[in-house]
Queue: 3 jobs
Job 1
Amino acid sequence: MPTLNVIDSGSSGNCYHIKRTNMHIFVDIGISRYRVDSVLEENDSQKDKILLFLTHEHNDHISGIIPFLNRYKPIVFASEGTADVLKKKGINVSDFYILNKDRIYDFEDISVHPFQIMHDGAEPLGYHFTFDDRAITFATDLGHAPAYIEEYLAMSDIGVLESNYEEELLKNGNYPAYLKKRILSSKGHLSNKEALNIAAKLSGNRIKKLLFAHVSEENNDYGILEKYSNFATKNFGFETIFLRQNRIYGIDF
């Protein structure tokens, strides 16, 4: 049975790890390499395949990439736009596999469906993975969610969906006006209520667990998120969990 390890999720760092037999799939590496060591033992890196899928180039998603590449020698997948930005940062991207949105890629026994996310990166992607009769979707860092993202989530056993801010906390908070405008824009981030509305549309589908992710430490509140998560779990027919920053979660699926 595969396990999803959320090594971190939030405004200061993001990294997800899917552990399978003889394979490790990472989505983003915006944390210290030493935190990766907590889920990836040394013998794993010697005998197992390690894959890294990058969503985009913002620092909270790629800050740990150089030590991770040097230590674990993963196979790396990214969009052309993301790879170009990393190249300008001095990272060797010559061996990266370049992915295009809306195509299906098969790598050994996994299928990967990259899709466009609406965010202010160079060419950001979300991912829908299928393997072992399981499916999981990562849709974070997006200002709004078109219908196809809802469809990917509905087809998944686990969905990872952004729930970045509580609108009133953001509007009344200390962020400068330009940053509030960016977050609220169609290429910014999803609010709690937007995430909850998407969750409601998933009711009656395959999904078993929905993770509210990429939670802002400045513009959100765990108490509010707990109420939303409890409401969704009670009313929508699947378990909903919100992810706290700096906490590891292990979820079998």
Note: The CA atoms of residues 96 and 217 lie 32 Å apart.
Job 2
Amino acid sequence: MIRAGVLGATGYAGAELVRLLASHKDTEIAMLASKTYAGQKMSEVYPSLRGVCDVVLEEADAETAAQKCDVVFTALPHGVSNEVISALYEKGLKVIDLSGDFRYNDIETYEKWYQVKHSCPELLKVSVYGLCELHREEIKKARLVGNPGCYTTCSILGLAPLLKNNAIETKNIIIDAKSGVSGAGRGLGQAYHFCECTETMKAYKVATHRHTSEIEQELSLIAGEEITLSFTPHLVPMKRGIFATEYANLKKPYTKEELLKMYHDFYQNEKFVRIYDNALPENNHVTGSNFVDIGLTVDERLGRVIVISNIDNLIKGAAGQAVQNMNLMFGLPEDEGLCGAGYYL
């Protein structure tokens, strides 16, 4: 059995990790840490886990984790993660980090967009970007994985086949993405009170959201040239989900069928990517699952392709993807513990 620990277990992503790990046949939960709720049972913080995970939360350090765990998931805020992870890595543990601290190839890009100094930039040389569909072989050999963001996962997978096939222009890509409120985390904030976010929509961090740089990094690697794009996130009145609409100008006329073939070929062996041939994704098709659903249409009048991609921000956009990475790192079937369909209602 793989002994797993979660630091930051009581945030939304951390709690989803606990739920998934508790039902994973090859893992046992060896340690759960929470600074706020140390001393309480996980099931006292999240009563839905009563009888499923009654582990007592603790304030863990690297020494404790090294004694108890084979792999540690860190679901901590950016800037906090890199200090903890340095110690965990030195102890020989495998680490999967859900913050943005180890997603970047370039330290200057990270520090520019996150506005913090990275305390262990040397680890960026050994960390692997944990988008399994694109970096599978590197992840299998990694000891430190930077789990991708939710917006980034949805957007990158939505556009990757088009860039790989040199089908779209690279300088005028637009991504319009909507997120459920859980994407803001469990912390208190006026903008996320029920009366502030129900029956309304709002854009935020327009042209400045840090996930822009992460998306550009990965899409540039696929395209083999620098990608610059416009990314606008929106908060919508639902609990969970990322619904992204990507717009790109085609380099030459393509039919919808020709573009769909690119997607089917690119993702032909992927267990968690579902391509819609005759419809478009909807948020409730992926809620509670590790799937990414993708559909598209061609605007022949404008010579533009419009792609719809959709994930659950807490599963494929966070905890499910982290478990998928763990499976690869330990040589397990990639879909172990993640096979279930979502819940439609």
Note: The chain has a mean pLDDT of 95.
Job 3
Amino acid sequence: MENKKVMNRWLVVIGAILIQLALGAIYAWSVFTPSLTEAGWSKEETQWVFAIGLVSFAVFMVFAGKRLTAWGPQKLAWLGGIILGLGYLLAGIIGGTSFWGLLILIGLIGGAGIGFAYVVPIAVGIRWFPDKKGMITGLAVAGFGFGAMLWVKLAGSWGHLIDNMGLSSTFTTYGIAFAAMVIIGGIWMKFPHEGWKPAGYKEKQAAATGTSGEREFSSSEMLGKIQFYLIFLTFVFSAGAGLMSIGLMKLYPMEALMAAGMTELQASAIAGTAMAVFFSLANGLGRILWGLISDKLGRKTSIIIMTAIQGIVVILFTFMAGNEILLYIG
């Protein structure tokens, strides 16, 4: 049998994190909202761009998943990175403050680019790590959470890009950076050859995590399973609540803290820290942690525990947002 040269599978992890750091731009949108409101935008208009971005992301992610095998993961990742980068680049070129311009370029087009590229690191990662699917999925998408902190801090307290360059140049710079990072990360986005398994891999390891006997389902078969609809509804409510919170992660706590007696400057600093540091770190580390937990406890048990915790926090968040310590915890 011909020996085929096999890439070091940990290079896939590096590429995946690099790609997801760029795609995490969608979580950093709220860092731009104060400058946009100063430019005359309403709070509702700032949320429309974020909302359209999420919808575009979700729709194009489904399409990308269908085309993954036909187009190949590397080409799909590169396509997504170029589209995302162009969206931000053009948003900067047109001035960075046009509502309709940003709605289309960052919301619709940028969201589409994220959708195209997002599926790639996950799909490639689990092919290279069949023995650690939870861990690799967590690592592959951890950059998505950490990316928010990176881009928020570069635009704000670390790099002061918005203050020093303005919105338009910041969007342009980010567009170039996003495209470059996804293109570089995409170099390692390749499936292993047919039949490849990691050294020492045994089916009993898969059985221990509830992944033995897996098979691929067609779209029509999947839609005929009640499990699909249960999982879909779980993510609608769970991700919906989380994404709604992300879009208001700075504005809502600011209002709650000011209502509790803080000045606007104090409230802005605390809300910014909660968003850019605590939330982003928890978002990134949580993905890795729950991936590892799911490898030990199984996917179903992990999702039940995770969503139960999330539900409790969401219910209590109205009361937590007006207190600095509780805001950081929540």
Note: The mean pLDDT is 88.
